[in-house]
Structure formats: structure tokens, C-alpha cells
Specification:
about 50% helix, single chain, 8 strands, alpha/beta, about 280 residues
Amino acid sequence: MKIGMIGAGKVGFSLGKWFAQGGVPVSGYYSRSPESAREAADFTDSRYFESIKALVDESDAVFITVPDAAIPSVYAEVRQFEIRDKYICHCSGVLSSADAFPGVADAGGHGISIHPLFPFSSRYETWRELMGAFFCLEGDEEALRTFGPLLEGLDARVQVIAPEGRARYHAACVAASNFMCVLMQESLKLLAGCGFPEELARQALAPLMRSNLEHLLKDGPVKALTGPVERCDTTTVGKHLNALEDGQLYRTLSLALVDLAEKKHPETDYREMRKLLSEERKTS
């Protein structure tokens, strides 16, 4: 099977190189930026295509690796050509294959979504890290039967999800990845108020964050939970709240921590902690 890529950003570069290095032929690249497509083609020892039609004609599977908002319009262009028995794929986390590719089955094609649970940070290096990554698949049965084994043959891990679960699935990915950036920024801001330069603050937080992440991944959030909420230390939590100019994020997250703490210590009464965290900030 020859895979063609429409789009030459980090995802297109990385997946193309990963496929090629794993022995899956890559026919080549088309992009609205010819320079990027040529660069990706050179990187993967494949071809640069001057038109979508030429790429579709030479490919058994077409991966549309463009921003989510552009996927439907790019597919509309692909749909103008012969796609019978071809696999049409996108890599969005939130779009279902049916939403992205309306009418693909009527044209004899097979729609599939293949979303890597992995941050694509580099066009040239990320492909090296994809072995062992999870790929979540959703699409028609023929496409799933084809791409599930193909990805597993490249030492990826595969999970099939239902189309109605895509938004919930993608929200989970955002919570695990993007929300960490907000939490880090909040910690850096608080440490800056204590006199820490940003670089030193990151260095100071690194061992704490790495150790906690290891426990989270190994044991899960309930067993890994520590801190004043888990200990039901209302005195310390009260001091935190008094020290914060805007404690809404702290209150919201700490109330969620109470839920975890109650699972870890069902014998402990957390009602006073809930009351403290639920109180509106008192103003003079």
C-alpha cells in the first residue's frame, strides 16, 4: 500500500518518515506550500506532487494532515477524483471520519481517523519517538482491518473508539497534556512572587513534577495523591487561599482533589474541607 500525504507540517513529516522507515511505501506529498512539500518529499525519499489529483492517482491511502478546520475543504477537493477502494484518512482527535468525509462510502472509498496520542514537536525528530505510542482509530470496518495490523506491525499500540466518543476522548487528551501547561504557569507565577527567577523556578519544580508523574503513571491518581487536601489539613489550605489573589483555579482543582482523597481515605470526614473550598472569597 502506498500512502500519500496532503499537508507537510509536523504531523505529515513525522508520519511519512515513520511509515517509510517501517517499510510502508510513501508515494509523496502535496501541500499549498510547494517548498514544504518538496522538503517533506526529500526527507522521506518520496515524490513531490504538483496537484492533489496526481497524488490521489498514485496513492492507495490519502492522509489529510492539515489543521482540523481545513480537513473538510481539502477532502472536498479529494472527493472530485476517483477514490474507489482508496483509504481516506485524517489525524484529528475530535473529528469523526463521517463528519470529515461525508459521502466517502458512496464514492467507494473507506474513511478512517487515525489520531496519535503523541505531541508532535518537531518535523524532523518526532518520528523517532512514535514506536510504542498509542494510535486511536475510528472508521469503517475495512479501514480498521487494514490499518490496525499495519500500525501494530510498526510497534504502535492501537485502540478503536466509537465516533460518538470522539469529543470526550479528545477532551481527555487535552486535560492530560495542555492543562499541564496551565498548572506549570500557575506554579511559576506563584514562585515568581517569592523571588524565584523563572529558570530557577522550573529547575526547582522539576524533581517534584517528575516524581509525581512517575507515581501517577505507575499507581494511578488516587494512590499517588499527597498534600494538604489528602491530609484534610484545612489550616494549610486556608493559608493558601488567603495568600492567593485569585483562588478560583485553586478552589476548583482542590475540590476535585477532595473526590480523590475520599476514595483514598473513605474513613476520613472531608466535609469541613469541602466547605472551606466552596466558600466565596471574603472581601473587606
